[in-house]
Amino acid sequence: MKVKEVADLVGISVRTLHHYDEIGLLTSEETTESGYRIYSESDLETLQQILFFKELGFPLKKIKEIISSPSFDRAEALELHRKSLLEKRSKLDNMIRTIDKTIQHSKGEIEMSNKEKFEGFDFSSNPYEQEARDRWGDKAVDESNAKINSLSRNEKKAWEDEFNSIYKELAEIRHEAPDSEVAQEGIKEWYDFLNRMGNYSLDAFKGLGQMYVDDERFTKNIDQFGKGLAVFMRDAMAVYADKNK
Amino acid sequence: MKVKEVADLVGISVRTLHHYDEIGLLTSEETTESGYRIYSESDLETLQQILFFKELGFPLKKIKEIISSPSFDRAEALELHRKSLLEKRSKLDNMIRTIDKTIQHSKGEIEMSNKEKFEGFDFSSNPYEQEARDRWGDKAVDESNAKINSLSRNEKKAWEDEFNSIYKELAEIRHEAPDSEVAQEGIKEWYDFLNRMGNYSLDAFKGLGQMYVDDERFTKNIDQFGKGLAVFMRDAMAVYADKNK
DNA sequence: CATTGACTCTAACGTTACGTTATACTTTAT
DNA sequence: ATAAAGTATAACGTAACGTTAGAGTCAATG
């Protein structure tokens, strides 16, 4: 097969094939006397492998190593690569959250209704405090309240922004499986956030999640970020709590 | 302030400042007669803005536009950028998912090949080979044996000895509870042994245990060490896998 | 006061994975 | 035979600096 045929077949450009030839990643088995590259079936298979690793985001150099050395430990390479991808992902998450905070903040010059947003954990100013005290004990609730009340306006604003950012993100991934990595990373943000304010045990966290669904006042507020978010959060929070015990 | 002072202050390199100068992103307000760049307070503020957008993953070109034109709609730029980050993230998620699948898949293959090794070992070195030949035909047995035989004699011998020793021990304690300390210590030997030859995850280990009961070929051979050993091992392996997660 | 060490400058190649011309030749179709 | 389509090599461009390399500058020390 000639370049264009191969290129069209696998959906890449002729230039790409030329490039792979240049860097020695994939040299056609045959060449006509006039210099045309002729690819064999075997070449095609190699190309498929190359494209596979390329889709995973491997650099061509690594792909070359992997392909050209059958003894290369692919499993290890995959594990390593996975880690680097996860790092990239968390960097991206940070960027997105920072953007969200910034957007929130600039919008926030107009003070939004604090109470709505804080209902999720502001037991100091809502009628559910007794329930919270019953459920998690006086100590946890008092601690949480003390912290919230000691915040300055700016601090409160910052919390709000972060709160919104987290919920926005969770709303975006609410159709993923609750035990997926994405979901668990998202819910971890929420857990960490809560624990920056008060002291939530994993059980308390799980219980809180359950309340999101049991108590329609919570459900309503939470689902404003996206329908079904409360249920998703309950499930993801339960998985998180069980997994991290 | 001179380059290095600024660079150290904000945590970037001198080269970066030079670069920003080159591309006209940030030119120092002043310059000494000898050509040294002297940055003003105002320059520093601009730099902070630049770094802020940079952290969000904006390309320098866009940052230049944003910075140099006060009329530029920052909010819109942020929203747009947010979208592109979300896309990148979902691409990353896809890559990660694909890697996970691949890893799972290859683990499965390792499991299978170990199974083959196991069979080969059993059938090539014990008196029941004839039975195996009768049941699955000469070809299958020979192929299986060939794989085992590619090991060096010493390797094979050591392997057999250890294998036998472990199974003998397990057979002796097979009437203990699968979650007892004795049983768990015994089964740990087996897990460690397997991981010296292949690569068994805890899940794979658990799955292998299940196979000991599901697949009568395994059951039969294992129970030659003692009736009920296969079932005992399956249970002990499951407990071990769950406990050590 | 000259030397030295720390600092600064410009210039230019290297990096990644091709896209994009530009120029010239080969093969295929009409 | 001639045009159209395909192929080849060569080389610049991209993003954001890192990394030498060679040369000049500034402040402190002997």
Description:
Chains A, B: Pfam families: MerR_1, TipAS. Chains A, B: This is MerR family transcriptional regulator. Chains A, B: InterPro entries: DNA-bd_dom_put_sf, MerR-type_HTH_dom, MerR_fam, TipA-like_antibiotic-bd, TipAS_dom. The structure is a homodimer of 245-residue chains. Chain A has 245 residues and is mainly α. Chain A folds into three domains: 3-68, Multidrug-efflux Transporter Regulator, Chain: A, Domain 2 (Orthogonal Bundle), CATH 1.10.1660.10; 74-117, no CATH class; 127-243, Antibiotic binding domain of TipA-like multidrug resistance regulators (Globin-like). Chain A contains 13 helices and two strands, in the order H-H-E-E-H-H-H-H-H-H-H-H-H-H-H. Chain A has helices at 3-10, 14-22, 41-55, 60-68, 74-107, 114-118, 129-136, 138-149, 153-172, 181-197, 202-214, 216-222, 229-243, and strands at 30-31, 37-38. In chain A, strands 1-2 form a two-stranded antiparallel sheet. At the A-B interface, helix 5 of A face helix 5 of B. The first copy, chain A, binds a DNA duplex (30 and 30 nucleotides) through residues 2-4, 13-16, 18-19, 23, 32, 34-37, 59-61.
Summarize, please.
By secondary structure, chain A is mainly alpha-helical. In chain A, 70% of the residues lie in helices and 2% in strands. Chain A has three domains: 3-68, Multidrug-efflux Transporter Regulator, Chain: A, Domain 2 (Orthogonal Bundle); 74-117, no CATH class; 127-243, Orthogonal Bundle (Globin-like).
